[in-house]
Amino acid sequence: MSGSMRYFCYGLFFSFTTVLFWGLIPIALKVSGGFADPVTLTWLRFSVSGLIVLVWQWAHGRLHEFLHLSRMDWVKLLLTGVFLIINYTCFAWGLNYLRPEVAQLGMQVAPLFLALGGMIFLKEKIASLQWVCFAILIFGLVIFFHPVVSGDYHGDLSVLFSGLIIMLVAALSWSAYALVQKSLYQKLNSSNILLGIYLFALIAMVPATHPSQLMSMTTSDVWVAIFCCLNTVIAYGSFAQALCYWETVQVSAVITLTPVASYLLTELCVFLGWWSDIITPSHADFLSLSGMAIVILAAIGIQVVSVLGIRHRKRSRVQTAA
Prior knowledge:
By secondary structure, this protein is mainly α. The chain has 13 helices and no strands.
């Protein structure tokens, strides 16, 4: 297997691992709503993840990388933590104004922000065909969530507008986190970047948390909390690795499939009868399923265009050198 194909396979694996675990986390958070508020659970996820990654990095002798960081590098690392905390907090806050499916739809602008940021700040190119695929992808998402965008929301429009603004901030902060994180790859590996974020969040989020809530958890609650914590390590670790092997435009295309994965996993829970008092069917119609298919095809199209573009650039460099 050639080096470029190996990099493509690694990027594909880590990207889809991210999609799987980000697709699972809304289900886990839905179940966890009965024993902890979102901020406290987020703090727990960051704290446990930080301890796990700290032990892992120490055991593998990788903590020395922090000794070589400049002052600007430390600033960037703190910024990644701030942006990710803002993302988590705003997403949880936005759910006070929006239904979960509306909030999830609002967050899907984040991959587009990430691709645009990669183009503006990292000088990555987005081909015209990729723009077309992105447009088709967004169109597919709108169709997939057509019950939401067609006026199914019956609450106060001012409340809805406030929630969407909050979700926009969440999406922007997530994109900023991803871009700043990528700028640190020359100094830190992905695990150390996440370690810095987790430990920063462990301290910074304490004033807004209520740890006493965690003391009254049942055995099943503990298992759900453990999954949420491990989900953080696996999902964000996979996302960070994906950015090492793929351009941001490629990664952003695949992770746009997260709402589709979440839908499929939720329907699987319904089919198996898990948490039937909490997880309910979406009753997706043919139009929604058609939108899901459009999203998948558009994401595949972006991958194909990206791979062809990379091969064309390499071929051009070889011809120029000759």
